[in-house]
Design brief:
By secondary structure, the chain is an alpha/beta fold. It contains 7 helices and 11 strands. The strands form 3 sheets. It has a 7-stranded mixed sheet with strand order 3-2-1-4-9-6-10, sandwiched between helices. Strands 5-11 form a two-stranded antiparallel sheet. The protein is globular and about 60 Å long. The relative contact order is 0.18. The model has no long low-confidence stretch (mean pLDDT 85). This is Guanyltransferase. Pfam families: NTP_transferase. It comes from Streptomyces daghestanicus.
Length: 243
């Protein structure tokens, strides 16, 4: 039997890959952040992302380039990719929201929904389930939500202030924007031509109850690659997962 929700799932996506990655230096001295390889995999972050998008039914991806754009464009042009890729470079800095709008204008099907992801996110979960969640809630935009582990150990106490336990790197009690999105076709027109959509478009949609949050399922892998420590920890975690 044909799945009636499948036709409403996105087959196109935008990857925001223009960041400078200053906290990842010296790795980003000669390449953009999404081109940094996770040790032990031999593949840059964006390579993992494109493979994941393809596994989730995406056929067309627009990659928004910025810092050292030519390095990323050359890799994309010379690599056997599982999806069709178009690259765009902003003519001038447009901000996160403006850059997203500029890239979305190059999607092949502007009348259909689309995914987007930040170029420094390394994750695996079902985008199909997230797309169904988005449709069920009739949302204009849906954000994936993660509970990152705190970089510090935590202390548990009882009602008398006595320490009862130490917990190494516990998960946060708060959910955060995980940098992965599902957008309805109408979303692109709501983005600013310049500026940050997370300070304008998202709060507006939240007030109108048209913004939803999809919790990444427990046990699914998620990490933002911001520092050299993140690279090392991602390599260790991936090695553990493959055992």
């Amino acid at each position: 039997m044909t799945d009636p929700t499948a036709s409403r799932r996105p087959t196109q996506a935008v990857v925001l890959a223009g960041g400078q990655g200053s906290r990842l230096r010296p790795y980003t001295d000669d390449r953009p952040k999404p081109m940094v390889e996770i040790p032990g995999t031999g593949t840059p972050i964006i390579g993992h992302q494109l493979a994941w998008l393809a596994e989730e039914g995406v056929t067309d991806v627009v990659v928004s380039c910025g810092h050292l754009a030519e390095v990323l464009q050359k890799w994309l042009e010379t690599t056997d990719l599982p999806v069709s890729v178009t690259t765009v470079v902003e003519p001038e800095p447009l901000g996160r929201g403006g850059g997203l709008r500029y890239a979305a204008a190059r999607l092949p099907h502007p009348d259909r929904p689309w995914y987007a992801t930040n170029g420094d996110i390394w994750t695996r979960f079902s985008l199909r389930d997230m797309a169904d969640f988005h449709t069920e809630r009739d949302a204009v935009a849906t954000l994936a939500l993660a509970r990152p582990r705190l970089p510090w150990g935590a202390v548990q106490t009882d009602g008398f202030g006595r320490i009862t336990d130490f917990i190494e790197a516990p998960p946060s009690t708060f959910e955060i924007n995980a940098g992965v999105y599902v957008f309805s076709p109408a979303f692109a027109a709501l983005l600013p031509e310049r500026g940050d959509h997370e300070r304008t478009t998202f709060p507006r949609l939240a007030r109108e109850r048209r913004l939803s949050g999809f919790p990444i399922p427990q046990g699914s892998y998620w990490r933002a690659i911001d520092t050299a420590k993140d690279l090392t920890e991602a390599a260790r975690e991936l090695a553990a997962l493959s055992r």
